[in-house]
Amino acid sequence: MVLLLTLTLTSYLVYNLALSLLRRFVIIYLDNYFTFVPLFAKLQACNFGAISIIRLYKEFLYNLLELKNRFTIKFKWNTLFAVVV
Known about the structure:
The chain has 85 residues and is mainly alpha-helical. Helix content is 39%, strand content 9%. It has one domain.
């Protein structure tokens, strides 16, 4: 229970809903309102995947451009690319 103190009330609700699912190893699709890194860490610890949309901020956009310039390969449309931080 101590680990759950890092979650917001909304994140705690999503976490409890995920735990109520009958099976594990599923991917949960979330809106940007629920995008919260501690929530994703808790879901990953329980063998849930999480995918969310994000809002672009100036600093975040700079990081994406840096990643794009670092890789010389061309990605096809609708390719999923992720970086674990």
